[in-house]
Amino acid sequence: MTAAAATSAPPSALKGQLGTYVGLTVVLVGMVALFGTLSEYFLTRETFISIANEIPALAVMAVGMTFVLIIAGIDLSVGSVLALSAAVTAAAILQWKLSVPVAAALGLATGLVCGSVTGAVSVAWRLPSFIVSLGMLEAVRGGAYLVTDSRTQYVGDAISGLAAPWIGGISAAFVVAVVLVAVGQLVLTRTVFGRHVVGIGTNEEAMRLAGIDPRPIRIIVFAATGLLAGLAGLMQSARLEAADPNAGVGIELQVIAAVVIGGTSLMGGRGSVVNTFFGVLIIAVLEAGLAQVGASEPSKRIITGAVIVVAVIIDTLRQRRADRRLA
Question: Which of 88, 81, 121, 127 is nearest to 104 (CA)?
Answer without folding.
Answer: 88
